[in-house]
Amino acid sequence: MAQTTDNIFRVTLLGTGAPPPRLDRFGPSTLVEVGGQRFIFDAGRGAMQRLHQLGIPFSDITGMFLTHHHSDHVVGFPDLWLTGWIGRQWGQRSVPLPVWGPVGTRQMMEHLPLAFHVDIRVRSKSYPPDGVKLEAQEISEGMVFDGDGIKVSAFEVDHGGEELPAFGYRIDYQGRAAVLSGDTTFNENLIRHAQGVDLLVHEVTAVAGSAAEDPKQLKRIGANHTTPEQAGEVFARTKPKLAVFNHLLLFGSATADDLIPATRRKYDGPLLVGEDLLQIDIGAEIQAKPFGG
Question: Least crowded by CB within 10 Å, which of 69, 82, 92, 196?
Fold first, then answer.
């Protein structure tokens, strides 16, 4: 497989949205290019399209990491997996795909080929049979990948106390570090793992005005996610070189423009509201630029 430049450490937000379908914010998915490898964290709606916009074939992806199994974080996975296998001009995957994730990942990766059995049976006559294989590895807190100077660690987060295993991830390379929160409420464990990182990408939710959702649903959703004010405390205590909001879950009249002013009540450091295909290069300095910028 073709690989990235060996010394690069780049995080690209493929999708920054949440469950409501939008054309400007696809589902949650993040590309991490580091040390000559490419990893994707979560695969929400439209992940394949965003990767294609970057001109990166799925055959170049080293592996997939899942934070949890809510549908908005995995519905794009079959597209990445199968389109990346048949590939053709987009780059054809010819080796098995490693997938790391919480308990239940193995079951998902065993049953997806059953769901697409007919397609796989037919296409296996024309495409590399190993390219459609999935190698699931169920994780617990701790180091989950260690190779070529790259360390990926998983840490438990709290997605509202539901019976849903959920993880954030920390990626370390050449003395630099990035943390992806996954979906979580305000979480002390995340704060412990994100101390002094170069980049902290954190989810956020906000409500303003009159929201159409049932109040009980809003209360449940609010208990599963982090408000801008809570995120401000996380950022103030971890002191990243750059904090970026991701997975924007907005209700009522709340907009992305409301997030930074609310966060500033507790945090005055570097902060961006993520957009799809925002690219962040991690080095002696942190450089963030929009797609095509």
Answer: 196
Taking residue 189's Cβ as centre, other Cβ atoms within 10 Å add up to: 15
Q: How large is the angle between the packed helices 105-115 and 77-86, nearest 10 degrees?
A: 50
Per-residue b or e along 233-269, where b marks 16 or more CB atoms closer than 10 Å to that residue's CB: bbbeebebbbbbbbbbbbbeebebebbeebbeebbee
- Rounded to an integer, the average pLDDT of 125-138 is 96
CA distances from 138 to 2, 68, 105 (A): 27, 11, 6
**Measured distance CA(81)–CA(195) in Å, rounded:** 34
Backbone angles phi, psi at 284, to 5 degrees: -55, -35
Q: Are 61 and 97 in contact (CB under 8 A)?
A: yes
Report how far residue 228's alpha carbon sits from residue 40's, in angstroms, rounded to the nearest whole number.
26
Q: Please give the pLDDT value at position 224.
A: 84
Q: What is the residue whose two structure tokens read 């809003």?
A: 218
Helix (H) or strand (E) holding 112: helix 105-115
- pLDDT, residue 19, reads 87
pLDDT in tens, 75-90: 999 999 999 999 877 7
Are the C-beta atoms of 26 and 45 separated by less than 8 Å?
A: yes
Provide the 3-class DSSP secondary structure of residue 182: coil
The per-residue pLDDT of the chain, averaged, comes to 93
How far, CA to CA in Å, does 155 sit from each of 124, 162, 182, 251? 37, 17, 10, 28
- Per-residue pLDDT of 93-107, as tens digits, reads 999 999 999 999 999
- Contact of 42 with 70, CB cutoff 8 Å: no
Cβ-contact 127, 95 below 8 angstroms: no
43 compared with 210, residue with greater pLDDT: 43
- Would you place residue 253 in the very low, low, confident or very high pLDDT band (cuts 50, 70, 90)? confident
